[in-house]
């Protein structure tokens, strides 16, 4: 195929921004309805959020597995599949969902804290702070690579007193399924061995768009938190 024209690129970007707007609205309603609460199992909460996405937007497809994790399960990276767990009264939990809206992928993650543990509350607040600082680093460096952005996110996490919980800090996003758009794994992720500029076109000629994924872990206390959304589009 030929290089996409500017109007196609703009429509594609608008589709991704609209998908994130719907994901943001979905999670706002998750909070308003208190779907993530102590006493509920992780799978039960996941099903509640799935059903709410269908109720609000008619969404029935998710491009990656639906994740709700709590307590020590919040330490696990994406690829793990821990057994179901009931959320506790003094707990931390996160949800990571990839709903598809009009064939565009959203990827959205937020963390919920129950009880008064100041360390859990500080971690939740630091998630958004590290995300914003990582986005600022991306915006300030037109030629930033996946390697450099990963190193900066890792530095920001350590500066706040946490470690990163996953092997990457984000990935490509686009039309479903984005994984077929670009071939090499390292080129599609924000990882230490991705020396390619993040601002580039993929093999089909489309401008690359990215998710920034922040998974902070408190190794000493045995829990973590998660925050993700679009990196390069508002």
Topology:
Blueprint: H1 6-32, H2 42-57, E1 67-70, E2 92-97, E3 100-101, E4 104-105, E5 108-113, H3 118-140, H4 146-160, E6 163-164, E7 170-173, E8 209-218, E9 223-230
Helix pairs in contact: 1-2, 3-4
Task: Explain what this protein looks like in three dimensions.
The chain is α+β, with helices and mostly antiparallel strands. It is built from four helices and nine strands; from the N terminus they run ααβββββααββββ. The strands form three sheets. Strands 6, 7, 8 and 9 form a four-stranded antiparallel sheet that branches. It has a three-stranded antiparallel sheet with strand order 1-2-5, sandwiched between helices. A two-stranded antiparallel sheet has the order 3-4. Helix 1 (6-32) crosses helix 2. The protein is globular, with a radius of gyration of 17 Å. The chain starts with 5 loop residues before the first helix and ends with a strand. Mean pLDDT is 92; it is low at 179-183.
Produce a short descriptive summary.
By secondary structure, the protein is of the alpha+beta class. 35% of the residues lie in helices and 19% in strands.
Separation of termini? 28 Å
Uncertain residue ranges: 179-183
Number of helices: 4
Rg on CA atoms, Å? 17 Å
> pLDDT average, as an integer?
92
Q: What profile does the largest beta sheet have?
A: 4 strands, antiparallel
Q: What is the beta-strand fraction?
A: 15-25%
- Coarse shape: globular
- Which class do the helix and strand fractions yield? alpha+beta
Q: Give the total of beta strands.
A: 9
Helix content percent band: 25-40%
Order of helices and strands: HHEEEEEHHEEEE
